[in-house]
Specification:
Blueprint (H helix, E strand, L loop, with lengths): L6 H16 L5 H14 L2 H10 L1 H8 L9 H18 L8 H20 L9 H21 L6 H11 L3 H12 L28 H22 L4 H11 L7 H8 L3 H20 L5 H6 L2
Helix pairs in contact: 2-3, 4-5, 4-6, 5-6, 7-9, 8-9, 10-13, 11-13, 12-13
Length: 295
């Protein structure tokens, strides 16, 4: 659905378009002279004259993208950005008209704006995806007209994929994106319903009470673990800390070399230490599953 400007925006756009169309056209030699004055002397007056005379080109190109549902004024402004980029890079010695050179920059700037704002979901990043986005409707309309029916079948998708040198999967995904629209979570469900879509989204996060209780329980368990570790020998503490309380677990073999024993001996000591910890921790809780359920 196309964006509809408010009356003030419509008036401002029409005034700008009317002014652009009234700007005088430049003869080739005068255009090149202005470009040289800007490029060689940094003459901003020459730059402004050249840009103003081609704002009509921006309006013409921007109007081709108005069916994407974006404000016409924004499309024109983005096109003006491209026009200024073209003016800063234009080389008059190449002996081509500025309009020919600027058209690519204007169109590219507008297309980037459409891709960024047509949907909250990023639509295309590669050159192939951009080409697919901006040509999909035209090619689909052509195929539907030829087949005298609405919608694409597998043969139609393959034809578009071949035409644009993309995968059939890319065509299918773009078809789905173009057929859908963004929906605000603040939109009401039905015309006579005051409930918004966001009211029906479930929040799986813990509530404040659960967070407080969880924090309290975690501190208690940490204290219990510290006291239980204190009942182990130094070697047992070292093995438990290195094997279970570090972000990066130390291997049995590495610990064996550090402690001067075999890795099998380290495994035996670790198993015995874990049993001691379990017995020690059970003294703090009535329900034997209470502690381990929170781990």
């Amino acid at each position: 659905m196309a964006y509809i400007d408010d009356p003030q925006s419509q008036k401002a756009n029409m005034d700008y378009i009317r002014t652009s169309m009234n700007e005088p056209m430049l003869e080739k030699e005068h255009e090149l002279a202005l470009a040289r004055r800007w490029r060689e002397d940094g003459d901003e007056k020459a730059l402004h004259e050249m840009i103003k005379s081609y704002t009509r080109l921006v309006v013409a190109l921007a109007s081709r993208f108005r069916n994407y549902g974006l404000p016409m004024g924004d499309l024109i402004q983005e096109g003006n950005v491209g026009l200024m980029q073209a003016a800063s890079r234009f080389d008059p010695e190449r002996d081509i008209r500025f309009s020919t050179y600027a058209s690519w920059w204007i169109r590219s700037s507008i297309q980037d704006y459409v891709l960024r704002n047509w949907s909250i979901v990023r639509t295309g990043t590669t050159a192939a995806q951009k080409s697919l986005f901006f040509n999909m409707r035209r090619l689909r309309s052509k195929i539907e007209s030829k087949a005298e029916r609405e919608g694409l079948d597998d043969a139609g998708r393959k034809e578009i994929a071949k035409e644009l040198n993309v995968r059939v999967q890319d065509v299918t995904e773009m078809e789905g994106r173009l057929s859908g629209v963004d929906q605000s979570l603040n939109a009401t469900i039905g015309e006579d319903n005051e409930n918004e879509w966001q009211n029906f989204l479930s929040d799986d996060r813990p509530n404040p009470e659960e967070i407080v209780l969880g924090t309290k329980d975690a501190k208690a368990r940490s204290q219990w673990l510290g006291e239980a570790l204190g009942e182990l020998s130094d070697r047992e503490q070292t093995i438990i800390r290195e094997r279970h309380l570090r972000h990066e677990t130390v291997t049995l073999e590495a610990l064996g070399k550090e402690l001067g024993v075999s890795k099998e001996r380290v495994r035996q000591i670790e198993q015995r230490a874990m049993e001691k910890l379990k017995v020690s921790m059970m003294r703090y809780v009535d329900d034997k599953t209470e502690f381990f359920a929170g781990l």
